[in-house]
Amino acid sequence: MLQLVEHFYSIQGEGKYMGVPSLFFRFGGCNLTCTGFGCHERAPSGTEVIGCDTAYAVDRKAFGELWQEIEELQTLIWIMNGYRLPPHVDVVLTGGEPLIYANEPIFVEFIEHLIAQGHRITFETNATIAPDFAKYPFYKEAVYALSVKLSNSGEPYDKRVRFEVLDAIITNTNGSFFKFTVDEPSLMSHIEAEIDEIIAHYPLTPVYCMPLGGDKSHIEANCEAVIEFCKRRGFIYSDRLHIRIWDQNHGV
Ligand code: SF4
Description:
Strand order of the largest sheet: 5-1-2-6-7-8-9-10-11
Number of domains: 1
Bound molecules: iron/sulfur cluster
Strand content: 15-25%
Number of strands: 11
Shape: globular
Order of helices and strands: EEEEHEHEHEEHHEHHEHEH
Helix content: 25-40%
CATH topology: TIM Barrel
Oligomer: single chain
CATH class: Alpha Beta
């Protein structure tokens, strides 16, 4: 059973395909919590939840009543048909962590269907779960935005850095890329060394860095430091257009 938090047709706001019209499906649930990001979100009950900038797609206890259970593939196809989409539009599967569903039959069918229909799929993933590429080879056709969490996430190292997962995804796919979320204070400390340790294993995989922040003011406060970091290191700066334009992460 899948948990769908929201779906919307917009432009991709960050990473390699920034600006590309994309249909987003945000699935609920994550194997991490990333409380270190310190973003605040008010749950329907009125409780203040602290987590990442998509805490509403992570914390089922606090936000689960807003999630929709998907019991069959047809529901997802029906949702897609409800939009007036150009042919072969990009589809972004995000979360939470979408790959917690990588072996769920409906999810597997959905991926197979999207690939067969000629859609480019991007998984926005924390890169701690690899699909079973041998059993479901069509997962190799997708692009993986590898948002490996750094120590500023507050997660323990062994949980957030999984080289066997990165190896599996990077060796089985074309076009996948790293996407790190950083802020000025973390760049002043140990974050650069953390990024280096990860990317050293994958010299051919592009590195995008974007500013930490769940709202416009935070993005603006962090972006210049991230741009300077990218200039110095030869990384690719990614803005977060959806937050900068709409000042939020929800459904835009
Ligand atoms: S891995 Fe991503 S979605 Fe999951 S808690 Fe961390 S930032 Fe949020």
